[in-house]
Amino acid sequence: MRGVVLAFLAAAGCAAEARPAASRLELRVRRAIAAHAPEARPSVWLAGGDGRELLAIDADRPVPGASTLKVLILVEAHAQAIEGTFRFSDSVVLLEEDVVGGTGSLGRERPGSAWTYAQLARKMIAESDNTASNLLVRRLGMGRINARARALGLGVTRLERFFMDFAARREGRENWTTAREMGRLLGAILRREILTPEACDAMIRALEATSRGRIAAGVPRNVPVGHKSGSLPGGRHDVGWVRLPGRPYLLCIFLENVLERPGGDRDGGVEAIEAAAQAVYEELGPSDE
After folding, report:
1. How far apart are CA 226 and CA 186, in angstroms?
2. pTM of the predicted model, to two decimals?
3. Does 156 reside within a domain?
4. H or E element: which one contains 92?
5. Termini Cα distance of the chain
6. pLDDT of 287
7. Cα distance between residue 118 and residue 202, in whole Å
8. How far apart are the C-alpha atoms of 218 and 32, rounded to whole Å?
9. d(CA 101, CA 84)
10. Which residue among 116, 253, 272, 287 has the highest number of C-beta atoms inside a 10 angstrom radius?
């Protein structure tokens, strides 16, 4: 674990090194966000696949992470599986009181049905299923998940409540992260630096099996994109990587203070993320020159 922490600290140190001028890219990203969600407060971190920072906009501001924290839950599940205290093949019975709202299909399944933790993990990432996520948090332990984050050098990222527990949110409990910390965690997975290479490969497959959109906007479908989005009232987020051949990059975008529109209307927050992500791809991707 000491080596892992040192690797994280080394990645963080990239922020202090001289980096390529990002003024044009930053201007494009800010303009793209403002064009679709002018009221939003952005937090953005962009880095090469090696962790070298390319752009930071308020990247260390703590933000309610919403479903982006499901990446940390996935890491903890694999960590405990390696330690032998958790098995993906074990199952849990779905009870009516387990079901919560929001995204995911598990809530439409029959109470009393049994589900393996492997199935729950797939639903947590592919569908952002909140019921599946809460069942995993309960089994893994919120305290152990947060201890893993601290051991990995993540000083802000933590869970304080279950998903869709808005009563806890009103009491001031929140699930926190920063754009930089989430980017560092995803980068460590992509570079296969944490846990085992096999565990990282499994997490890469899971994150690249999600639907396209948000930071995948404008990226050709033959370019793999692994990401995890999140939404809260007033918040729209997406974090992940684009495996551009020879030039992979990490991109984390958190938008707060997004104006909520009536149901059925366009989602300016999602459109802002997609516009910013497309600008990044156009700047970093292939050129005709």
Report:
1. 9
2. 0.90
3. no
4. strand 91-93
5. 45
6. 61
7. 11
8. 13
9. 32
10. 253
Q: Which of 75, 76, 136, 80 is nearest to 104 (CA)?
A: 136
Establish if 267 belongs to a structural domain: yes
Q: Which domain holds residue 36?
A: 2-61+178-284
> In the block, which residue shows the tokens 């203070």?
257
Interval 203-228: pLDDT, tens: 999 999 998 889 998 899 999 999 99
The CATH number covering residue 23 comes to 3.40.710.10
Q: What are the pLDDT digits (tens) for 256-269? A: 999 877 666 789 99
Cα distance between residue 177 and residue 201, in whole Å: 24
> Which two structure tokens, joined as six digits, stand for 224?
């793999």
pLDDT at 86 over 60: yes
Domain-embedded: residue 166: no
The H or E element spanning position 276 is helix 268-284
What's the number of domains the chain is made of?
A: 1
The answer to whether residue 139 sits within a structural domain is no
Q: Show the tokens assigned to 255.
A: 């938008």
Tens-place pLDDT, residues 50-82: 999 999 999 999 999 999 999 999 999 999 999
φ/ψ (deg, to 5) at 264: 95, -20
